[in-house]
Each structure stands twice: as structure tokens, then as C-alpha cells.
């Protein structure tokens, strides 16, 4: 049974196989199934080519007859890294292997790779970019350049000054309070009009040019008035010092008044210099015109005459040149010390008069005119405060006009016209406050 079952199963299997693939006719040839070989590239087993010296030339040209080398697929996609400068690359391109069909194709029948010219890529050497020239400015030129940047194209300058001056001059006596014990000389004290502190002002205006020069014009005015008096007591008498000697020798009282007016016009051409970070200096020169007048009047009362009046007057008009400078030293951020001074010479015309009347009767009336050279000097020192374009100063100053005062005296009662002169300097000193502004 087992054998019969196996035989039936075998017949059924072969019957099904015959129905699926009917037998071929004897005349139909039997075809050999095709076998597709993969596309394999045979590597080049030849030794690598040596790099010759001429390969390092800046530029190599490939002969025209040589066929252009094939570009690999990777290079077309942009994956090939960039070649370095002055580099020569060599590539050997293998031909594509021929597709061989058939299982029995021998290896020796495959086409051998043909050698092709190496692909030579030339690069022109590009040198480094030349450096840009470096311009080195001298320190002085750099400082000038920075100063020009910091300094405006031009600015107006204005400043005002208030001061209190007291006159300092000798020869302002008018009487002696004392006695005459032996009828020859006088023993006592000289009485003079000294004067006190009187106000004045100074105004300046000008322009600062782009090159640093400054041109300014200033006006100074000062007026002083003072008086004094003296009276005789039980043991002392009043002896006059200004009356003519041939007239009354003593009085019971005397009153004196002194008045002075000063007007000065100054022109200045100056320039400022920065010595260092905390020190600034200004130098200047320019013309000066001046007008000065003084009136000294004395009234003597009680004696042989009820009133004897003596009036002395002096007028000066002149001009000259003046040079000077100032220095500012910074102590703190906005506070500093300053020093200023100037010196000059003026020449001008002096006019001196002397008048005396007794009970309205003329005793003396003379006029003297002459030319004189008057040297001048001044010095000031103080503190300053600066903020922006505003500067304020507080200080003390001294001025002296040498030989400015000259008066006449009659000293001999025997010779009525015998005359002597009084010479003295005109000086001032006092405190001042100044404010400066540039805009």
C-alpha cells in the first residue's frame, strides 16, 4: 500500500509539471539563458607617474590634439576640495568597462585600459596683497590737528571787570599842624589827602580767529575823590604848604579835596599757548591811549584874610605801546591760579596849572605845558574758576605810572617868581573781579 501510494503521488507530480511546461518540439533549439555581468572597472596596475620639474612651472598648456580628460562625477557635484595655490594635480581616467554578456567570456577577452594624458591643472601664483602705506604724523603736527578739531572756526570774546582801587602817590600835602617856637621853623605833623578805595570798571570785547590769534579792544574807567581837613587847637596852629610864601603864614583851619579821573583805551593782539595739560599762557601786545586829570583844591580859613583858596590841576593825554601776558595754572578740575602783567611806555602832553586867590583876589595864576615819557607797569594775581566757555577770576593787582604827577611850588618870598617842582609817581592797587565768556 505504501508503494502504491508513492507511485500515485509521483505520477500526479509529473502530470502537473507536464501541464505547466509542455514539451518542446525536437526541431526547436535549446537557448542558453543570458547571464548579465556587473559593470566592473579594472584598476590600473601601472606604477604612478613621477612629477617632473617642468610640472612646477607657473602655467602649463595641454596640447590641442589631446582629448579633454573626463571629469569625475564627484567633481561635477562640487565635492572635490579646492586645490592649493601653485599645486599640480595628476589624474588618470580609466575607460568604462565594456559590458560582457555570457557566462563563459574569459577575463583575457576584456578590453585593457588605455593610458590617457594626465590632467594638468595650472594655477597662476598670486602674491600677497601689498600692505597699505602707514602715514606717521609727527607729534607736533598731530597736536596741531587735534587743536584745530577742538578749536571752533572763530569765536567772539567779551569780559567785564569790576575793581576797587586806592591811589598811591606822594606830594598830596596841604598843611602842617604844629607850632613855631623860635619863629624860624615848624614842629608838627604833615597833613595829606591820601584817598581810599574807589570803584571802577574795565570792559573788553574782541574776536578769536581760527588760527588762534585774538584781537581785543578794552576800555578802563576809574574815578577817585577824597578829602581831609584840620583845625588849630590850643597849642597847635595850621601852617599852609601850598600858599605863596609871601602871604599869610598861619590859619585856624584848612580843608582839602582831591579828585582824579582815569580813562584808558587798550588794543591787544594776542595768542594763547598750551604749555602742558594744566598750564596755559597768553601773550599780547598793542597800543594804549590814556587820559588822566587831577584836581587838588585847598581852602584855608581864618587869619588876616577870611579865605585863601589854592587850586592845582594836572592833565595828561598820551599814547604808546604795551606788551604783556598771563599764565593760568590748573589746581583742581575747574579751579586754578593765574598771574598776569604788562609793561609799556607812553609819551604825551602834560599841562599843569596853579591858581591862588585871597578873598577873591588873584595871588598866583600860572600854567606850564611840556611833553613827558611815562613808563607803566602792572601786575595781578588771584584765583580763577572755569566752566565751559565761562571763566571767573578774583584777584589783587598793582599798577604804577612812573613820574606821572608833577606840580609847581613857589618857595621864595624875596623872589616871587622863583619856582620849584614836585615829582611823584601815580600808583593804584586793589581787588578786582572779572568774568570772561567766549561764544
Write the layout of secondary structure elements.
Elements: H1 2-20, H2 73-76, H3 139-150, E1 155-168, E2 173-179, E3 187-192, E4 198-208, E5 213-231, E6 237-240, E7 253-276, E8 279-301, E9 307-330, E10 335-358, E11 361-387, E12 390-410, E13 419-438
Antiparallel strand pairs: 1-4, 1-13, 2-3, 2-6, 4-5, 5-7, 7-8, 8-9, 9-10, 10-11, 11-12, 12-13
Keywords:
single chain, 439 residues, mainly beta, Lipocalin, 10-stranded antiparallel β-barrel, 3 helices, 8% helix, rod-shaped
What does this structure look like?
It is a single chain. With 439 residues, the protein is mainly β. It has a domain of 283 residues: OPCA outer membrane adhesin/invasin (Lipocalin, Beta Barrel). 8% of the residues lie in helices and 51% in strands. The strands form two sheets. The protein has a ten-stranded antiparallel β-barrel with strand order 1-4-5-7-8-9-10-11-12-13. The chain has a three-stranded antiparallel β-sheet with strand order 3-2-6, with no helix packed on it. A hairpin with a 5-residue loop joins strand 8 and strand 9. It is rod-shaped.
Say how many strands there are.
Answer: 13
CATH class of the domain at 156-438: Mainly Beta
Number of helices: 3
As for the CATH topology of the domain at 156-438, it is: Lipocalin
Beta-strand residue percentage:
over 45%
Low-pLDDT stretches: 83-103
> So, CATH architecture of the domain at 156-438?
Beta Barrel
What string, H for helix and E for strand, traces the elements in order?
HHHEEEEEEEEEEEEE
Helical residue percent? under 10%
Amino acid at each position: 500500500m505504501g508503494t502504491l501510494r508513492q507511485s500515485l503521488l509521483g505520477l500526479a507530480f509529473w502530470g502537473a509539471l507536464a501541464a505547466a511546461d509542455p514539451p518542446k518540439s525536437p526541431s526547436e533549439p535549446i537557448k542558453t539563458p543570458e547571464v548579465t555581468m556587473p559593470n566592473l572597472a579594472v584598476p590600473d596596475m601601472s606604477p604612478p607617474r613621477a612629477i617632473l620639474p617642468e610640472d612646477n612651472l607657473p602655467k602649463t598648456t595641454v596640447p590641442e590634439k589631446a582629448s579633454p580628460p573626463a571629469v569625475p562625477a564627484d567633481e561635477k557635484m562640487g565635492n572635490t576640495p579646492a586645490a592649493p595655490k601653485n599645486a599640480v594635480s595628476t589624474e588618470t581616467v580609466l575607460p568604462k568597462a565594456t559590458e560582457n554578456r555570457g557566462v563563459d567570456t574569459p577575463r583575457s577577452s576584456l578590453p585593457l585600459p588605455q593610458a590617457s594624458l594626465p590632467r594638468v591643472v595650472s594655477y597662476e601664483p598670486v602674491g600677497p596683497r601689498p600692505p597699505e602705506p602707514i602715514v606717521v604724523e609727527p607729534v607736533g603736527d598731530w597736536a596741531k590737528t587735534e587743536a584745530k578739531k577742538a578749536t571752533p572756526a572763530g569765536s567772539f570774546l567779551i569780559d567785564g571787570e569790576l575793581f576797587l582801587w586806592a591811589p598811591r602817590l606822594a606830594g598830596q600835602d596841604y598843611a602842617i599842624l604844629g607850632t613855631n617856637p623860635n619863629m624860624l621853623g615848624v614842629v608838627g605833623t604833615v597833613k595829606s589827602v591820601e584817598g581810599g578805595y574807589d570803584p571802577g570798571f574795565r570792559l573788553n570785547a574782541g574776536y578769536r580767529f581760527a588760527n588762534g590769534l585774538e584781537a581785543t579792544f578794552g576800555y578802563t574807567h576809574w574815578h577817585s575823590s577824597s578829602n581831609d581837613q584840620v583845625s588849630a587847637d590850643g597849642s597847635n596852629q595850621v601852617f599852609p604848604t601850598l600858599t605863596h610864601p609871601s602871604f599869610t603864614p598861619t590859619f585856624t583851619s584848612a580843608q582839602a579835596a582831591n579828585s582824579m579821573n582815569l580813562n584808558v583805551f587798550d588794543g591787544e593782539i594776542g595768542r594763547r599757548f598750551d604749555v602742558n595739560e594744566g598750564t596755559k599762557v597768553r601773550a599780547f601786545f598793542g597800543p594804549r591811549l590814556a587820559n588822566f586829570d587831577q584836581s587838588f583844591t585847598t581852602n584855608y580859613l581864618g587869619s588876616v584874610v577870611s579865605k585863601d583858596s589854592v587850586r592845582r590841576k594836572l592833565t595828561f593825554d598820551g599814547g604808546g605801546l604795551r606788551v604783556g601776558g598771563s599764565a593760568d595754572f590748573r589746581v583742581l578740575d575747574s579751579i586754578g591760579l593765574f598771574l598776569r602783567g604788562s609793561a609799556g611806555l607812553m609819551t604825551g602832553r602834560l599841562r599843569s596849572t596853579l591858581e591862588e586867590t585871597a578873598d577873591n583876589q588873584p595871588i598866583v595864576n600860572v600854567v606850564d605845558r611840556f611833553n613827558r615819557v611815562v613808563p607803566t607797569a602792572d601786575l595781578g594775581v588771584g584765583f580763577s574758576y572755569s566752566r565751559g566757555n565761562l571763566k571767573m577770576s578774583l584777584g589783587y593787582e598793582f599798577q604804577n605810572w612812573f613820574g606821572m604827577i608833577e606840580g609847581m611850588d613857589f618857595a621864595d618870598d624875596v623872589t616871587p617868581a622863583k619856582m620849584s617842582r614836585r615829582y611823584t609817581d601815580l600808583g593804584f592797587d586793589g581787588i578786582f573781579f572779572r568774568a570772561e565768556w567766549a561764544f
